[in-house]
UniProtKB/TrEMBL annotation:
Native organism taxonomy: Eukaryota, Viridiplantae, Streptophyta, Embryophyta, Tracheophyta
Originating species: Amborella trichopoda
Family: Belongs to the COG7 family.
UniProt main location, coarse: Golgi
One Pfam short name: COG7
Keyword Membrane on entry: yes
Gene Ontology cellular-component annotations: Golgi membrane; Golgi transport complex
Protein name per Swiss-Prot or TrEMBL: Conserved oligomeric Golgi complex subunit 7
Length: 827
């Protein structure tokens, strides 16, 4: 057995634990005494070995101590000697440092004087040279050597910068500006001619001359002026072509040859792109250092020059998409401003035409991005923003356009309210109205989904806020119409909550109340078949609420997914962070540049670079949309819930209306206070049968599941929802049964006095209703069971029953009430 001596060196060594552990490690066949004896012997041997080793080591250490002491004394003497030597060296260094510092300071002063003398010498030379250049510059100009003249003027500029603001050279400074303008005037005609005739060498030389005198801006203006003219001619060619086509149309009546802007625009973009490609390739030779900025600036200037006309043509082109506005020569902006004839409305075709033009411009922008891919990122961004700039006016009014289109589409949906018909036609009117309501829901969703697609196609998501606000407003408009239609259905069903016996005179009633009473009287006269058709029609309204809730939930989920897609495409997490840190409307922030770098062609990102506050709001919207509790349409979501509640209320009122009608006068029935007639002969007693009012209610409740079953199947539409449909039918069945029980109890509470004969009859009625409720798997209310028990009890035994029960099986308040009705005193 090996012994591990490690635990013995630990500070918290416990001998008892160690011995117990050693005992547990013994072989099962060995005896404990033998094991402990061996352990003791091994420990003793090990201790003797350790003691012997310590003795040897101690003796060896004692022998080495004198020698170590001598080594220590020698090292101490060496250290004292070294310290003395180092002290002497430090003293010498301090003396040397003092003398060196004085020498270096003197040399620095000498160097400063030298530099000033050199600067003064150079300045005097420049001044002398400036005087000489000023005197000889006219001769240089007279020679016609333009490069030499540019070099002379450049030297004069340099000399003036060296001399500074010296009064003696003020006239020379003015002379230099005049000479530079003069040289520019001499170069410009030659440069224009060279550019027009593609003279590469001449353009390069003249370009260098203007660069030498710092007139690069003049070069850009000249270049753009020359190359802008053919593009303007190309743009104005559309009006010429359109005018010629109109003349042809006048000669050939009935033929439609007038070219539309939408069909002409792609060819214009192709011509411009071809022109830019040629300029890009040509400019690489004479302007190898500047072509990457010069050609893009040409396109920016082209779009800036054509912007106003571009907007006008886009506007007119959108109007040409619809015959009505085509004849009026008006477009989207005119309609939105109200500058058209009365009744002209914005239509989907107008917007689709605008999107079509925008897509054409987007294709051109992608080609431009490919052409200018070697340009600086900011240059490329400025170019693309210029290309899309004609559409900014329309995007600023996107919400107004979308709201006008959706309002017009919603208004075309047939959602007229229900109107009163004669007896036997209420069910037809109800069914027809519900059908229109249900069919309108998918139509509205299609309209809203199309609006989302339009927003994506036209704005790329930059107007996401406006889209959500518009959809929310339109949904509220549509839901308000549904609510009004629902109110008309209440009147048709005769459940508009207007009482009839409240003492209001016929003359004092408003038209709505009179109509309600009229509808109620009609319902009193309808047949059972018509009554059930009204019930079935009312139940169908539940499908409207179910369809509206499910469709709106799915649509909201799709909106959240769209917002998530926008968030990814914009990379606004970086954009928003940079804005939050800077708190400045600065489009040159690093985050902004990184955003554009990731999605340079994204039309929404380009638009947001100039609107940091708008970008921050959209970023916050995207962050909120990640929360599962987020509602893309907050107001509509609340209104949908309110509509569902109103539908449930209406359906319940319809389902309970027959019960309410049958039980309306139960408390006043004369049978409760009737007394058996006294006869001379003893008559056999017969069991009472339930009365017509309660059998009518019972039959109605028993028939109701058959009415709910087809509706439940219609809502489920699949086996997977079978349990849900069963729950739906059961829930409504219980709800109506509970309502009927509550109405019956309310009537029973209103009975003032009940005789023994009345008690016998009422117990039969309650027993019948209880059996019906049990058949429907409904629990019988304690009130009814108590009533039934007390009614079956003889009047003279009722007091003892109530006293003896003590509330174990009877509902005591109900029992006391019945005692009061039967004139039984409990005191």
């Amino acid at each position: 057995m090996m012994i591990d001596l490690g635990p013995f060196s630990e500070e918290k060594f416990d001998p008892k634990k160690w011995i117990n552990a050693a005992c547990q490690a013994k072989h099962p066949q060995d005896s404990m005494d033998k094991h402990l004896a061996e352990l003791e012997m091994k420990l003793q041997v090990i201790s003797e070995e350790i003691s012997s080793s310590l003795d040897e080591l101690s003796a060896s250490a004692l022998l080495r101590i004198p020698r170590a002491s001598r080594d220590v004394v020698r090292l101490r003497d060496d250290a004292i000697s070294l310290r003395s030597a180092i002290s002497g060296i430090l003293q010498k260094l301090e003396k040397a440092e003092g003398s060196s510092a004085e020498s270096i300071a003197a040399l620095a002063k000498v160097d400063i004087v030298k530099q000033r003398m050199e600067a003064a010498y150079e300045t005097l030379q420049d001044a002398a040279g400036l005087t000489q250049l000023s005197a000889s510059v006219e001769d240089v100009f007279a020679s016609g050597d333009l490069p030499r003249a540019a070099e002379t003027l450049a030297n004069m500029r340099h000399c003036l910068s060296v001399v500074g603001e010296v009064a003696e050279f003020a006239n020379v400074r003015k002379q230099l500006e005049v000479l530079e303008d003069r040289l520019e005037g001499m170069v410009q005609p030659r440069l224009s001619d060279a550019l027009s005739h593609r003279k590469v060498d001449a353009v390069h030389d003249l370009w260098d001359i203007l660069i030498r005198i710092g007139r690069f801006k003049s070069i850009e203006l000249n270049y753009i002026k020359i190359h802008l003219k053919p593009i303007r001619n190309l743009w104005e060619g559309f009006e010429v072509r359109k005018g010629s086509d109109m003349l042809v149309t006048e000669k050939h009546v009935g033929e439609k040859n007038v070219s539309s802007f939408s069909s002409w625009l792609p060819s214009f973009f192709d011509e411009v792109l071809l022109y830019l490609e040629q300029e890009w390739k040509w400019c690489m030779v004479p302007f190898p250092d500047d072509y990457k900025t010069l050609v893009p600036k040409l396109l920016i200037e082209i779009m800036s020059t054509l912007s106003a006309s571009f907007v006008t043509r886009i506007n007119i082109a959108t109007g040409e998409a619809v015959a009505e506005t085509r004849t009026l020569a008006t477009g989207v902006l005119d309609i939105l401003s109200g500058d058209t004839s009365k009744g002209t409305k914005l239509q989907t075709k107008h917007f689709e035409s605008l999107i079509e033009l925008h897509n054409m411009t987007g294709a051109f922008a992608r080609n431009v991005q490919h052409l200018f891919s070697a340009c600086d990122l900011q240059v490329l961004v400025n170019v693309l923003k210029a290309v899309y700039s004609p559409y900014d006016t329309f995007k600023q009014r996107y919400g107004q356009m979308e709201r006008a289109i959706l309002s017009s589409e919603i208004a075309r949906i047939d959602l007229r309210g229900a109107v009163s018909r004669g007896v036997g036609a209420q069910g037809i009117e109800l069914s027809e109205t519900v059908r229109r309501m249900e069919e309108s829901i998918p139509q509205v969703v299609v309209f809203l989904e199309a609006a989302v697609e339009r927003c994506i196609s036209f704005t790329g998501g930059s107007e996401a806020e406006e889209l959500l606000r518009t959809i929310d407003d339109i949904m509220l408009q549509y839901l308000s119409t549904l609510q009004e239609t629902l109110k008309s259905l209440r009147s048709i069903c005769g459940v508009d909550n207007l009482s009839h016996g409240d003492g209001v005179g016929q003359k004092d009633m408003g038209p709505e109340r009179k109509e309600s009473m009229h509808n109620s009287r009609i319902l009193d006269m309808v047949s059972d078949e018509e009554e059930w058709s009204i019930v079935q029609g009312a139940l169908q309204i539940l499908t409207v609420a179910d369809c509206l809730s499910s469709r709106s939930s799915v649509f909201e989920a799709s909106l959240r997914a769209t917002l998530a897609r926008f968030s990814t495409s914009f990379s606004l997490s970086i954009f928003g962070t940079s804005l939050d840190q800077s708190h400045k409307a600065d489009t040159e922030t690093p985050g902004n540049r990184e955003l554009v770098g990731r999605a340079a062609l994204d039309v929404a990102a380009l638009r947001l670079t100039d609107a940091p506050e708008k970008a921050r709001r959209i970023f916050n919207l995207f962050e909120q949309s990640k929360d599962p509790r987020f509602h893309a349409l907050p107001l509509s979501s609340q209104r949908v819930s309110a509509f569902s509640e109103a539908v449930n209320e209406l359906v319940y009122d319809v389902l309970i209306s027959k019960v309410r009608q049958r039980l309306s006068d139960v408390a006043k029935l004369p049978v409760w206070s009737s007394v058996e007639e006294t006869v001379s002969h003893k008559m056999p007693s017969f069991s009472a049968y339930p009365q017509a009012y309660v059998t009518s209610v019972g039959e109605y409740l028993l028939t109701l599941p058959q009415q709910l079953e087809p509706l439940a199947e219609g809502i489920s539409n699949s086996e997977s929802n079978a349990d849900e449909s069963q729950f739906f039918a059961t829930e409504w069945m219980f709800k109506v049964a509970e309502g009927a029980t509550a109405l019956y109890i309310e009537q029973l509470r209103g009975i003032q006095y009940i005789t023994d004969r009345g008690a016998q009859q009422l117990s039969a009625d309650i027993e019948y209703l209880s059996n019906v409720l049990s058949a429907l798997s409904m629990p019988v209310a304690p009130f009814l069971s108590t009533f039934h028990t007390c009614l079956l009890t003889q009047r003279d035994q009722l007091r003892d029953l109530v006293k003896s029960d003590g509330g174990n099986q009877l509902d005591l308040p109900t029992a006391r009430l019945l005692c009061k009705m039967r004139r039984v005193s409990l005191d």
